[in-house]
Specification:
Elements lengths: L3 E6 L3 H12 L4 E5 L5 H6 L1 H18 L15 H25 L3 E4 L2 E5 L2 E4 L2 E10 L3 E3 L12 E2 L1 H4 L8 E5 L3 H13 L2 E6 L10 H13 L3 E4 L3 E7 L2 E6 L4 E4 L1 E4 L3 E3 L13 E2 L2 E2 L12 E3 L10 H15 L14 E3 L4 E6 L2 H6 L4 E7 L4 H6 L4 E7 L4 E8 L6 H9 L4 H5 L9 H11 L9
Parallel strand pairs: 1-2, 1-6, 2-3, 6-19, 8-15, 9-10, 9-15, 10-11
Antiparallel strand pairs: 4-5, 5-6, 7-16, 12-13, 13-14, 17-18, 20-21, 21-24, 22-23, 23-24
Helix pairs in contact: 1-8, 3-4, 3-6
The structure holds flavin-adenine dinucleotide (FAD).
The site of flavin-adenine dinucleotide has 36 residues, from helix 1, strand 2, helix 2, helix 3 and helix 8.
Length: about 450
C-alpha cells in the first residue's frame, strides 16, 4: 500500500511546483527537503542575484543622475544594507511559499532523503512510499580541476552573493549567465572586473549578435574581457589570486569567482542503486520526464534540459498533470524564454540564426536598433531586437539586448510559440513610447512596412 500518490525529493523550483500542482489535482503529496523550501532559485540563485542587480542599477543611476539633470551623487555601497534588503525579499517570498505549501495540505518533511526502493524515500529512518516518486534534487556549482573553492578568495556564486564588502578587484571565470550577472553587479558596486571565458564569446548559448552587443556594452562599462583562452592554474597569496591562462598570460585580483556551470545532485542518494539511467551524472528522461524505472520521474536541474527555474516549474507541473491523467503536452524547449539580467539585459526565445540554419530553414533576419525607439532614448540604453524567421513563414527566434528587454519576452514567447509570422505581429498596435514598440517595429520592418527604421 502506498502512503502517498506522490513522493517528491527536493523542494526547489521543480519539486515544489510538482507538489503544488499535484495537490491541486487531488493527489496526496509528500515533499522532502533537507535545507530550505524554495531551493537554489529562492535562496541562492534567481531572487538574491536579481536583488543585487537592482541595487547595482540604483548605484549606476546615482552615478549617472546628472545625465538626466538630477543632482545626486554616488558615495559608496553599504553592503550590510544591501544584504538586509536582499534577504528581506527572500524571506518574504520564503514565508509566502511555506504558507502556500501548508494551505494545499502537502506533507512537508524536513531532512535528507535517500531513494531506498523504486517507490520509497527514507528520511531519518522513516520511509515515505509513493505510487510515484519525483526526483528534484537540483544542482551545485562546479569548479575546475586544481581550483579549490575556499569561500573567501576563491568563491562560487553561493559565497559571492553573501559578501559583506565590495572587493576592489574581481576575476570572473566563466562568461555564461551567472558570470555575466555577477560581473555586472560588481562593476556597478565599484569593483574592477575581468571576465575570463574559454569560449570565443560571452553568453555562448545566445545568438552571436547578442554576444557582440553585450561585449560592446560591457567594454563601455570598463569591464575587462578575455575570451577564447582557457584557464590553466591559480595561485593564492595574501594580496589576492593570480590566475594563469593557457596562453601564458596572468591576471590578478582580490577575488576569483568560479562560474563555470552547475552539476546535477544525483550521487550518493540511492539513484545508482535503484538502477536509474544517467548520462554524465544527469538523469536521462523521456519527453514527459519519466526515468527508465516505472513510477520514477525526474525534473529540474538534474535532467539535461535548460537549468532555469521556470523550466523546473514547467517540468514539475507537467509531471504532476501526467500522473493525474491529464495528458499534458510535452515541453518544447525551443520555446523557453531566457534572460541574462546584466546591464544591459540579454533576452531571447527560439532559435539563433546559426541553429535555424543548421536545422535547414531558409532564414531571413532583421535587426531593429533601439536607437530608433523613443523609450530606449529616454532610458539612454543601446541594443537591438533581432528577428530570425523562416522565409515567408513564422518567426523562429527573437534575440534582444538592452536595458529591461527581459520584460519584452512575454510577447516574444507568444509570437514564437504561437508560430506567428511578421505580418501577424505587425498589425498589432504597440503603445508609444514603450520599449515594446521596438518589438512591433521589428516585425513591421520584416513584414516590409518599416516605420521608424533607417536603411
Ligand atoms: C546564481 C544563480 C542565479 C540564477 N538565476 C536564475 C534566474 O534568474 N532565472 C532562472 O530561471 N534560473 C536561475 N537560476 C537557476 C535556478 O536557480 C535553477 O534552475 C533552479 O533552482 C532549479 O530548480 P531545481 O528544483 O531543479 O533544483 P534546486 O532549486 O536546486 O532545488 C533542489 C532542492 O533539493 C534539495 N535536496 C537535494 N538533495 C536532497 C536530499 N537528498 N534530500 C532532501 N532534499 C534534497 C536541495 O536542498 C534543494 O533545495 C540561477 C541559479 C544560480 C545558481
Amino acid at each position: 500500500m502506498s502512503d502517498f500518490d506522490l513522493v517528491i525529493l527536493g523542494g526547489g523550483s521543480g519539486g515544489y511546483a510538482a507538489a503544488l500542482r499535484g495537490a491541486q489535482l487531488g493527489l496526496s503529496v509528500a515533499l522532502i527537503e533537507k535545507d530550505k523550501l524554495g531551493g537554489t532559485c529562492l535562496h541562492r540563485g534567481c531572487i538574491p542575484t536579481k536583488a543585487l542587480l537592482h541595487a547595482g542599477e540604483i548605484a549606476d543611476n546615482s552615478r549617472h543622475a546628472s545625465d538626466f539633470g538630477v543632482n545626486a551623487q554616488f558615495i559608496s555601497m553599504d553592503m550590510a544594507a544591501v544584504n538586509a534588503y536582499k534577504d528581506g525579499v527572500v524571506s518574504k517570498l520564503h514565508k509566502g511559499l511555506q504558507g502556500l505549501v501548508k494551505s494545499r495540505n502537502i506533507t512537508y518533511v524536513e531532512g535528507t532523503g535517500r531513494l531506498v526502493s523504486p517507490n520509497s524515500v527514507e528520511v531519518n529512518g522513516t520511509k515515505y512510499t509513493g505510487k510515484n516518486v519525483i526526483l528534484a534534487t537540483g544542482s551545485y556549482p562546479r569548479t575546475l580541476p586544481g581550483l579549490e573553492i575556499d569561500g573567501t578568495q576563491i568563491v562560487t556564486s553561493e559565497e559571492a552573493m553573501k559578501f559583506d564588502y565590495v572587493p576592489k578587484s574581481v576575476i570572473v571565470l566563466g562568461g555564461g549567465v551567472i558570470g555575466c550577472e555577477f560581473a555586472s553587479v560588481w562593476n556597478s558596486f565599484g569593483s574592477e572586473v575581468t571576465i575570463v571565458e574559454g569560449l570565443p564569446r560571452l553568453v555562448a548559448l545566445e545568438d552571436e549578435s547578442s554576444s557582440k552587443l553585450l561585449e560592446r556594452a560591457f567594454r563601455k562599462r570598463k569591464i575587462n574581457l578575455v575570451t577564447g583562452v582557457k584557464f590553466a592554474s591559480a595561485v593564492k597569496s595574501k594580496s589576492g589570486v593570480t590566475i594563469t591562462l593557457e596562453d601564458g598570460t596572468t591576471h590578478t585580483a582580490d577575488v576569483l569567482l568560479v562560474a563555470v556551470g552547475r552539476g546535477p545532485v544525483t550521487s550518493g542518494i540511492g539513484y545508482e542503486e535503484q538502477g536509474i539511467a544517467m548520462d554524465r551524472g544527469y538523469i536521462t528522461v523521456d519527453e514527459k520526464c519519466r526515468t527508465n524505472i516505472p513510477g520514477i520521474w525526474a525534473v529540474g536541474d538534474i535532467i539535461p534540459t535548460l537549468q532555469l527555474a521556470h523550466v523546473g516549474f514547467a517540468e514539475g507541473i507537467m509531471v504532476a498533470e501526467e500522473i493525474a491523467g491529464l495528458n499534458p503536452r510535452a515541453i518544447n524547449y525551443d520555446g523557453v524564454p531566457k534572460v541574462t539580467y546584466s546591464e544591459p539585459e540579454v533576452a531571447s526565445v527560439g532559435l539563433s540564426t546559426a541553429v535555424a540554419k543548421e536545422r535547414g530553414y531558409d532564414v531571413v533576419e532583421i535587426s531593429y536598433d533601439l536607437a530608433g525607439n523613443g523609450k530606449a532614448n529616454i532610458l539612454k540604453t543601446a541594443g537591438s531586437i533581432k528577428l530570425v524567421a523562416q522565409k515567408n513563414g513564422p518567426i523562429l527566434g527573437v534575440h534582444m539586448v538592452g536595458s529591461r528587454v527581459g520584460e519584452l519576452l512575454a510577447e516574444a514567447q507568444l509570437i514564437f510559440n504561437w508560430e506567428a509570422d511578421a505580418s501577424d505581429v505587425a498589425q498589432h498596435i504597440h503603445a508609444h513610447p514603450t520599449l515594446s514598440e521596438a518589438m512591433g517595429e521589428a516585425h513591421m520592418a520584416l513584414a516590409g512596412k518599416p516605420l521608424h527604421a533607417h536603411g
